[in-house]
User: Which sequence fits this backbone?
């Protein structure tokens, strides 16, 4: 039987739960708004670029790709500064930063990457947590394997 989505958990009795791949699309808007407000707060706190900059280059973990577009529009309306997101895996973005990529802000999916960059001297400011998450196990009736 072909599963409808992503394997989430295997129980001791060999039952498996699957989640449809569209589960991210159905998240309540307030969760995205809450994350968005935190991201904007971090951008304001950590941005150390020139005072009259027109663009803010942000290295963004792939899991924030849909959120950063909406935040970029709001940020430009409020500040006049355009956000230029560079989306990729946190590991690849870390490598780019080590090799001199000119990012103003790094939004990572894994705190270990920005902590390592800070310890190696690639950042003047210690990393801060900008969002938290919870794993939710959803299943649709009839999709037991």
Assistant:
């Amino acid at each position: 039987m072909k599963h409808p989505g992503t394997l989430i958990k295997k129980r001791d009795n060999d039952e498996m739960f699957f989640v449809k791949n569209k589960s991210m699309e159905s998240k309540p808007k307030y969760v995205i708004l809450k994350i968005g407000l935190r991201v904007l707060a971090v951008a304001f706190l950590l941005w150390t670029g020139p005072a009259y900059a027109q663009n803010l280059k942000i290295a963004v973990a792939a899991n924030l790709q849909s959120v950063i577009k909406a935040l970029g529009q709001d940020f430009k309306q409020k500040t006049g500064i355009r956000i230029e997101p560079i989306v990729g895996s946190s590991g690849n973005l870390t490598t780019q930063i080590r090799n001199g990529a000119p990012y103003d802000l790094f939004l990572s999916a894994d705190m270990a990457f920005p902590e390592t960059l800070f310890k190696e001297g690639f950042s003047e400011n210690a990393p801060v947590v900008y969002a938290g998450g919870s794993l939710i196990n959803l299943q649709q009736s009839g999709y037991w394997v």
Residues 5-119 form a domain with the D-Maltodextrin-Binding Protein; domain 2 fold (CATH 3.40.190). DSSP finds four helices and five strands in the chain. Confidence is low (pLDDT under 50) at residues 1-11, 16-26. The chain has one domain: 5-119.
